[in-house]
Amino acid sequence: MAGIRAIGRSERGEHFLRHRPPVPHYFKATVEWMKILACVCGHASLNQFCAADLTTWKRDIAYFTGINYAGVVPL
Predict the structure, then answer these.
(1) What is the pLDDT of residues 29-44, one digit of tens each?
(2) Phi/psi of residue 69, each to 5°?
(3) If you placed Cys at 48, which of 27, 43, 55, 71 could pair as Cys (CB 3.0 to 4.6 Å)?
């Protein structure tokens, strides 16, 4: 009969180190998607983005940041 064994702190840490998500791969993939988005928006590189390129559908974000609002309810 199999039982459930509690995992100690050191074992949890070892499990995390062996099975951690590939963070560098995630960041690299995210930057690649951002470069594709820049190209689609007509920019040659990421540093050509400006605040006018941003839009949000959240009223609070638009109100506090001053970026364009695309929601249904007016500000």
Answers:
(1) 999 999 999 999 899 9
(2) -110, 130
(3) 43
